[in-house]
Amino acid sequence: MHILSLNAGSATLKFGVFDPASATPLMEATIEHPAVDAAAFDEIERRLRDAGMPAIDAVGHRVAHGGPRLSEAALVDADTEREIDQAAPLAPQHNPVALAGIRLARERWPGLPQVAVFDTAFPPGVVIWEAARKKRVATATAGLRSPTTRVARSGCPAWPAAAARATRS
Which position among 42, 50, 85, 119 bears the catalytic label? Predict the structure, then answer.
């Protein structure tokens, strides 16, 4: 199981590939890019291929603000996209570009589960690593069942891979 984690920013696109069983980063990189667009995603795919990365099984996205309804990791669907868009006034420099990245990733990898993780889902004053570790974030799909215990660290471009707590039956 390998998770591609994306952190789409206004000037960069940070990404990484993680093995969720060990939370080991297999690769982390930054693309200095003026826009989150198809060319940036072409570059991600090129770098993954050049580095000999295995096929990805899911995509995690860092999103600054989930608004009033998205208070934990969420499997991305049309409703999730709508909530992220509606929360854009709360994070105007971050949510629109994150949403653009989510939409591009869903187009690029339509068969993969996509999970959004929100900065606002973590308690104030708690380092993201600790919040994720304490929550023992579960995974988004039945194929990603084992809990992830060491999934993030503050400042890591790939921490959304931890995010896999989107659905629980």
Answer: 119
User: What is the model's pLDDT at position 123?
Assistant: 53
Q: Domains in the chain and their CATH numbers?
A: 3-162 (3.30.420.40)
Q: What share of the chain is helix, strand, coil (3-state, %, to 5)?
A: 35, 20, 45
pLDDT of 68-108, one tens digit each? 888 888 899 999 999 999 999 988 989 999 999 999 999 99
Strands 58-63, 74-75: parallel, antiparallel or unpaired by DSSP?
unpaired
The pTM score is 0.73
In the residue annotation, 79 being an active-site residue is answered as no
Q: What is the dihedral of CA 84, 74, 13, 136, to 10 degrees?
A: 140
Helix (H) or strand (E) holding 17: strand 12-19
